[in-house]
Automatic annotation (TrEMBL):
Region annotation Disordered: where it falls in the sequence: 195-216
Biased composition (Low complexity): 204-216
Protein name: Multimeric flavodoxin WrbA
Entries under Pfam families matching the protein: FMN_red
Protein's organism: Micromonospora luteifusca
Residue ranges crossing the lipid bilayer per the database entry: none
Gene3D superfamilies: 3.40.50.360
Length: 216
């Protein structure tokens, strides 16, 4: 059985050690993945000097290459993001833009380096918008080569116009807790299947054609 490793990218706007509800939910996903014998770590992106851009390395001390190395070493990627103005956070959007560079990176057989990697999404917010945010992030991850399993998202949103955060409300075993467990179970399962049976290279009979790169 293949050894599976996970990376959670916390896309909060708050630098450490500031409290982060998306970090709490991301760590709960890691706990559930650990129950599936998946090791992993969480990186708070804003703690690193990640530059805006669409290349694998923007130079001048860019923090993305080190994060990318962790991503390439993992088989599971979880994007944890808060909702701001009904959208994924600006940090989340920057991460997705950096992942656009993977459309130009291939292995020796012509497959994207993200092919065979499985992705999921964890979202927190104090107002509605979780489904919209999940849809945006999942579409972008799939576009750059990640595979999305069934039930590949977990989320929590508080009552509109209120101020309770997820980290204060605590886990909800019968709602968010259940979807977090399903996310971990399905991502670990699919990651092991793809590790054992990778996607065929582009030249193979019946192989799908990869996505075209969007213009800047």
């Amino acid at each position: 059985m293949a050894n599976i490793r996970a990376l959670v990218l916390n896309c909060t706007l708050k630098q450490s050690p500031g409290p982060s509800s998306s970090e709490q939910l991301g760590r709960e996903v890691l706990d559930e993945l650990a129950a599936q014998d998946v090791e992993g770590e969480l990186v708070r992106v804003v703690d690193h000097d990640v530059r805006f851009g669409v290349s694998t390395d923007e130079g001048n001390g860019d923090g993305w290459p080190a994060i990318r190395a962790k991503l390439l070493a993992a088989q599971v990627l979880i994007i944890a993001t808060p909702i701001w103005l009904g959208q994924p956070s600006s940090v989340c959007k920057m991460v997705l833009e950096r992942l656009d560079a993977e459309l130009s990176e291939t292995d020796d057989e012509g497959r994207l380096l993200t092919y065979g990697k499985v992705a999921g999404v964890a979202v927190v917010g104090n107002e509605d918008g979780a489904h919209h945010t999940i849809g945006q992030v999942q579409q972008a991850l799939n576009e750059v080569g990640f595979t999305l399993p069934a039930a590949a998202a977990t989320y929590w949103v508080g009552e509109a116009l209120q101020t309770v955060d997820y980290r204060d409300a605590g886990p909800k075993p019968d709602t968010t807790g259940r979807t977090t467990k399903a996310l971990a179970l399905n991502t670990a399962h699919l990651a092991r299947l793809l590790a054992d049976r990778p996607y065929p290279p582009p030249g193979a009979k019946g192989a799908a054609v990869g996505p075209s790169r969007e213009s800047a």
